[in-house]
Amino acid sequence: MNVLFIYTNIKGFHEDTYSFGLASIVSIAKKNNYNTKVILVKTQDEYQNVLDEIQSFKPGVAAFTSVSSQFIYVKELASLIKSRFPSIITVCGGIHPTLFPDCLLEAPALDGIFIGEGEYSFIEFLEKLKNGGTYFEIDNFGYAIDGKIRINRLKPLIQNLDELPFPDRET
């Protein structure tokens, strides 16, 4: 399965910023034999680049990470993706959904959010998708149902970070 990771830094202050959490998730996805690509989005004019990448890469999942200042752009991009490619599963992790899980109610184009450390939960999510199962009960996952947010239990924090692969910062 192909997984497209989308990192927005629109109107950001630091050109060289790259999410450590995203790099960690990308590396563990690669370690588990998923085809990954990361696309950096620095302006709203680049939204078409994301859609073009989806057309050529054909991901099953479009995965965002977000800080609060970027969530507006995540919502816009997720909506564009779902309008053109409704079968793609769209999810978001990062500090914004972790601190404000109700953000999911503002973003109906997102199928769910990851809360806290998502490395192992994200792989479980991908495995469920690959095998045709339901992913709604995965730890560290939240989703909206009937206008309410459901947050699943959180896995314990990873005690030995050395068990994770080195973060992948390739784009």
Tell me, briefly, the overall form. Answer: globular
Number of strands: 7
Order of helices and strands: EHEHEHEHEHEE
Q: Mind summarizing the main beta sheet? A: 7 strands, mixed
Oligomer: single chain
Strand content: 15-25%
Distance between termini? 18 Å
Radius of gyration: 15 Å
- Contiguous runs where pLDDT drops below 50 for at least 5 residues: none
- Count of helices? 5
Helicity, in percent? 25-40%
Strand order of the biggest β-sheet: 2-1-3-4-5-6-7
Structural classification: alpha/beta
What is the averaged pLDDT score? 90
What can you tell me about this protein's structure?
The structure is a single chain. A hairpin with a 2-residue loop joins strand 6 (141-145) and strand 7 (148-151). This protein starts with a strand and ends in a 20-residue tail after the last strand. The longest helix has 14 residues, at 71-84. It has helices spanning 20-31, 47-57, 71-84, 95-99, 119-130; strands at 2-8, 35-41, 61-65, 89-93, 112-114, 141-145, 148-151. Helices cover 32% and strands 21% of the residues. It is α/β, with parallel strands linked by helices.
